[in-house]
Specification:
It is a single chain. This protein is of the alpha+beta class and about 240 residues long. It has two domains: about 10-190, BirA Bifunctional Protein, domain 2 (2-Layer Sandwich); about 195-240, SH3 type barrels (Roll). It contains four helices and 13 strands. The strands form two sheets. Strands 1, 2, 3, 4, 5, 6, 7 and 8 form an eight-stranded mixed sheet that branches. A five-stranded antiparallel sheet has the order 12-11-10-9-13, with no helix packed on it. A hairpin with a 3-residue loop joins strand 5 (about 95) and strand 6. Helix 2 crosses helix 3 (about 155-180). One of its GO terms (molecular function) is biotin--[biotin carboxyl-carrier protein] ligase activity. This is Bira ligase: biotin--[acetyl-coa-carboxylase] ligase. It comes from Akkermansia glycaniphila.
């Protein structure tokens, strides 16, 4: 049996980006700040991180030869987020491919995974918890959600950071040992009800019902003609729920 892993915790009051701070720390470190002034999502979209939310980055080790596998880590982190939320009974929590956690059609959390070195990935996560929604009014593409309005009761931010650390450790190690297949049963239940989406690539746009993903993380659509089409994940610019 593997020895238990202890996370090394680094906490600061304010940071431009916890992912940037995490780069200088070892695997199995987490960096959390109370206020994040320059948080970012995919394609460098702004993430507003005010007091009361969870703005945190988790470093995990990678094998040097890992190439495509690390790009599946947003999905691994998404499953970990859902696992950490389960005890708090947040209704209608689901994933939106590839890196968002939604409550219904509102966005509760976002994920940004970067690879600062050949042997480490940094999983950056922002979760709206107790932060003011007034600060986000008109500033986000998706309507925001926060745990305080759904969880009963809402955990303390530092408490949830460690619950999430444990979930990331569990799901990441399952992924490392057995590949994406180890998490596919959870992922099959992670997307909520079927939704019509548009998948945008450089070559074409595809519309259909999102029904899940392939083992390599690519979204699968059921098109109106009835056929299934997997869109290679690395070609997707955006997936928009209609």
């Amino acid at each position: 049996m593997a020895s238990p892993i202890t996370w090394t915790v680094h906490e600061v009051q304010e940071a431009v980006s916890t992912n940037d701070l995490a780069r200088s720390h070892a695997p199995w470190s987490l960096v959390r700040c109370h206020v994040q002034t320059g948080g970012r999502g995919r394609f460098n979209r702004e993430w507003i991180g005010q007091e009361g939310g969870l703005w945190v980055s988790y470093n995990v080790p990678l094998a040097e030869e890992s190439t495509s596998d690390w790009r599946l880590l947003p999905l691994v982190a998404g499953i970990a987020l859902l696992d950490a939320l389960k005890p708090h009974r947040v209704p209608d929590a689901r994933l939106r491919w590839p890196n968002d956690l939604m409550v219904g059609r509102k966005k509760l959390a976002g994920i940004l995974v970067e690879r600062p070195s050949a042997t480490m990935a940094t999983i950056g996560i922002g979760v709206n918890m107790l932060n003011s929604m007034a600060d986000l009014a008109g500033k986000t593409k998706d309507a925001p959600a926060r745990m305080a309005d759904y969880a009963a009761p809402c955990p303390a931010v530092d408490e949830f950071a460690m619950q999430l650390a444990q979930a990331i450790q569990t799901d990441f190690l399952a992924f490392v040992q057995n590949g994406m297949q180890a998490l596919m049963p959870k992922l099959e239940q992670a997307w909520g009800k079927p939704r019509t989406v548009e998948v945008q690539t450089d070559q074409a746009n595809y519309t259909g019902t999102f029904i899940g993903i392939t083992p390599d993380g690519s979204p699968i659509l059921r098109r109106k003609e009835g056929d299934l089409r997997a869109i290679p994940g690395h070609t997707v610019n955006r997936l928009i729920e209609l």
